[in-house]
Every structure is written in structure tokens, then in C-alpha cells.
Here is the input.
Amino acid sequence: MRISIHSPGDLGLAVRAARRAGNVRLDDLAAVAGVSKQFTSDVEHGKPTVRLGLVFKLLCELGVRLELDIPEDAARELASLRTKHGQPPASKPASQSSKSKQRG
Here is the structure.
């Protein structure tokens, strides 16, 4: 399910919901992700100054994928930057590719 995130608090609630839905204890998630229990609690409570790289560790352990919806011209610029830096192009989300199949 896709949801919109507008604040650290929104992200924190989503992390907490994913953890609880998976019946994972806060301290167990922290241990598996290699972060502290306090950090995990801070994320779930929407602390705005948490380290983004560590948030990605938590999301990964919970099986939560983070996507950005950027304007089309920004997407073209991103593709150019990825090529310049030797990175593979981004794959299109499943919802876009299924829409294009329906049109064709």
C-alpha cells in the first residue's frame, strides 16, 4: 500500500505500524538493524533530526520501500546524472508499467 509522508511524524507512525504488524519488538528491530533502541524509538516518535542512513536500515529490515514522486523534468535530469555517474537507470514502479500496458 502506498502512503504519503509529509513529516518525520508520518514516517515514524508508518515505521511503528510496520514493526507492530510484523510482531517485531522495538529492541529486536534495533538489534537486527544495528542501531540503538533509543534511535528506533526516536524514529517512531518522529524526531526530526535522526540520521537518514540509519532510518534506511530500519526500513530495509522492515521490508519497507521508500519511493519519491518527482516531477518529470527532474526525472529526466536524474537519469542524466545516473548515466554520468555510472549508475543504472531507475526501474519504473509497477503501477506505471501496468498503466502503459493497459494503454497499448
Observations:
- The chain has six helices and no strands.
- The chain has two domains: 8-62, 72-103.
- The two ends are 26 Å apart (CA to CA).
